Structure formats: structure tokens, C-alpha cells
């Protein structure tokens, strides 16, 4: 059997990371797994056993998700979108998957509705249409205008067999962020959270008892990196700091290194083994995206989450508020971010035991494979 997962990450890489983890779980179960990515390449994310297909990449202009930029920085035009549609539908024809999964759409990525609709129309018209599922995280951005809700419901009714919700309703139910209608509610298939397997922390001592800082590229992460470097310079906390900077922030590294002495601060590009470093850290500082939050909870790392709130974004602050109720977790809003306040927030969580989520709750990728396999089996009966 074959699964095709279609994803476009526009700002961070969380959507792609989740799609790759899902595809790898299918591949481990004996499926042929293909991920079609329409966002910028993310070298720090490995496809595992899946095959990664790259469309001509697009990214958002900062937090303006209605303005999409090509790899060379141009505003994407009709020809760019037409090329992506053609590449996407050609891949569907070539791969002929048994299951087709669209990450976030139709609950989001409406600026790319043209290519998703073309894909779904073609899938519906195939001699053997694939099982079609949407894949969504725990928290969604609510509809921006009244018409969005019926549009989403209509696409689900016409094209989809179900919605894989990568959450646990006992922890974060989807209705906390999205106004579910009765027909939508019937389509929900909770999988648990999609998290990578726990890394082997005994492989080395690098990063042990450090404060590890990760954040997005560009202005999204720069304020956190700068505040962390200034906090390291102040020396209020007796810990070494390690900043993992995205590849597109290389130019900022010199500025950050000048903010604190080398014996207190290490700055390096984001590494494929960053989860091993995280598991050995004394504490973590970063945004509160889906994958970042799960990594911290799965590894039991004391954490200070600084949720991303630009552009009327509500996902991360909603998640951070919920998780900050747990021991060893704190939230520090960006408007309050300063070296002193960061040090105070860290002082409140350092050394606190963070309750890890039940491993069964973190097995969302494997559970997704079980759900899809069962649905295909029922279809053949």
C-alpha cells in the first residue's frame, strides 16, 4: 500500500516535521510513503524511510500568509501556482496512492486552495479513488470570517473520508480552537500526538545541564536568541547556554556571539540531533509550536515557552497557557521578554520534575497508520 502526504509549511517547519514523522510511521509498517513538500527545504529534517518530493517552494512574507514568496524572493504569481498545481497532480497520477493525506487543508492554507482543490478533484475522478484524509494538529487558527466555516465543511463533505486529529481530547480537544459543526465532529479521528521516538540520551554528554534555546528563523526567533544571549552575559544563572540558530540566520551569529563571552555561550546551526541535546539540557527556552512543546513534554525538560503571537496568531499562546498549568513549565509572552524576566522564569522551572506524557498519548503516528489501515480494510469489504 502507498500513502501520499501533501504539506506546505510557510513560516516554521513544524508542519513538515509532523508530516515526515507520519510518513516514517507508515514506512515502518511496510507502506510506500511519499511526502510532497511545497515549503522551503529544511535540511535539519530527515525524511527517514519516506520519499520526499519537493515542489517549487513557497514561503510567507513574514506573518502575512496571504502573500507568498518564491525561492528567489518574488511574490508568487499565476505561473508559479500553475507550475505547482501541475507538479502536484502529476505526482498523484504517477504514485496512485491508496491513501491521500493533506496536512492542515481544508482547515488552513486557503491561499493554496487552488492546488489542493485540483489535487482533490483529480483524486475523486481516479478509477480507484484513494482514501482521503485531512491531518491537523491539536490547535487550529479559528475561521477568519463567517464564510470560512461552511467552505471547510463543504470541502470535507465532498472530498474527505475523515480528519486525523493529532491530539488527545483529554489534553487539548479540537473544539478548544475550532468551532466544530455536528457533521465535522463525526469525522474526527483522534490519534494522540505525533512525536518522534525518544532519543538515546546516553550517546554522549554534549549539552548536559545547559540551557538550550531554539526558535524560528528571521524576526520570529531573533528576539528570543538576543534575549537569551544577553541573559547569558548577565551570568545570573550558573549555566552554560547553547543557541541552535536556523541556517538562514548565519549572518546574525556574529552579532549574537558578541553579546556574551564564549565560556557562557555556544552558538551553532540547528542540528539533526537537537533532541538529544534537549534531553540532556537543564532547561529549554523557545516558542510553543506543536513539535517544540511535544519534545519538551516527551523528554521531561523544564521549559519556558515564549509563544509566537505576531499577525493575530493564537495557536501558540493557547497551547502555552494550557501547558503552563503543568509543573516545570512557564510561559513568558514576547511583550514581557527581557533578560531579567527570562532569568526569573527559568529560576521558577529549573530543577522541577516535568511530568512526561504517557507514551501511548505520544504514539499518534503509529495510531494514524492503524486507523488508515482499518479504514482501507473496511472499504474493501
UniProtKB/TrEMBL annotation:
At the top level of its lineage, which domain of life is listed?
Answer: Bacteria
Is this entry keyworded Cytoplasm? Answer: no
Residues annotated as transmembrane: none
Q: Which GO terms describe its molecular function?
A: hexosyltransferase activity
Q: Which UniProt keywords apply?
A: Transferase
What residue stretches are annotated with the Glycosyl transferase family 28 C-terminal domain? 272-347
Statement: the UniProt record of this protein carries the keyword Transferase: yes
Its protein name is: Glycosyltransferase
Q: Which organism is it from?
A: Azospirillum doebereinerae
Amino acid at each position: 500500500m502507498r500513502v501520499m502526504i501533501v504539506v506546505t509549511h510557510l513560516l516554521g517547519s513544524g508542519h513538515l516535521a509532523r508530516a515526515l514523522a507520519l510518513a516514517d510511521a507508515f514506512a515502518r509498517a511496510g507502506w510506500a510513503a511519499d511526502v510532497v513538500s511545497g515549503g522551503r527545504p529544511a535540511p535539519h529534517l530527515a525524511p527517514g524511510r519516506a520519499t520526499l518530493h519537493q515542489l517549487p517552494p513557497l514561503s510567507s512574507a513574514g506573518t502575512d500568509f496571504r502573500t507568498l514568496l518564491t525561492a528567489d524572493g518574488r511574490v508568487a504569481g499565476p505561473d508559479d501556482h500553475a507550475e505547482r498545481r501541475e507538479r502536484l497532480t502529476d505526482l498523484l497520477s504517477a504514485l496512485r496512492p491508496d491513501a491521500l493525506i493533506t496536512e492542515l487543508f481544508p482547515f488552513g492554507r486557503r491561499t493554496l486552495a487552488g492546488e489542493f482543490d485540483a489535487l482533490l478533484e483529480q483524486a475523486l475522478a481516479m478509477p480507484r479513488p484513494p482514501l482521503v484524509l485531512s491531518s491537523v494538529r491539536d490547535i487550529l487558527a479559528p475561521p477568519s470570517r463567517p464564510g470560512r466555516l461552511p467552505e471547510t465543511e463543504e470541502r470535507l463533505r465532498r472530498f474527505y473520508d475523515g480528519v486525523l486529529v493529532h491530539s488527545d481530547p483529554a489534553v487539548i480537544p479540537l473544539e478548544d480552537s475550532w468551532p466544530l459543526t455536528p457533521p465535522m465532529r463525526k469525522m474526527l479521528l483522534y490519534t494522540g500526538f505525533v512525536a518522534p521516538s525518544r532519543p538515546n540520551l546516553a550517546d554522549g554528554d554534549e549539552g548536559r545541564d545547559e540551557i538550550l534555546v531554539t526558535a524560528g528563523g528571521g524576526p520570529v526567533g531573533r528576539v528570543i536568541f538576543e534575549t537569551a544571549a544577553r541573559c547569558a552575559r548577565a551570568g545570573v544563572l550558573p549555566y552554560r547556554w547553547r543557541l541552535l540558530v536556523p541556517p538562514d540566520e548565519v549572518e546574525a551569529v556574529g552579532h549574537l556571539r558578541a553579546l556574551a563571552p564564549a565560556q557562557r555561550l555556544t552558538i551553532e546551526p540547528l542540528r539533526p540531533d537537537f533532541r538529544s541535546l534537549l534531553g540532556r539540557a537543564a532547561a529549554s527556552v523557545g516558542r510553543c509550536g506543536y513539535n517544540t512543546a511535544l519534545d519538551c513534554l516527551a523528554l521531561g525538560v523544564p521549559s519556558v515557552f515564549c509563544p509566537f503571537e505576531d499577525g493575530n496568531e493564537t495557536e501558540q499562546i493557547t497551547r502555552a497557557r494550557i501547558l503552563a498549568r503543568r509543573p516545570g513549565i512557564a510561559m513568558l509572552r514576547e511583550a514581557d521578554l527581557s533578560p531579567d524576566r527570562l532569568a526569573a522564569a527559568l529560576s521558577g522551572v529549573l530543577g522541577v520534575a516535568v511530568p512526561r506524557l504517557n507514551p501511548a498519548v505520544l504514539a499518534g503516528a503509529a495510531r494514524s497508520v492503524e486507523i488508515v489501515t482499518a479504514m482501507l480494510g473496511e472499504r474493501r469489504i
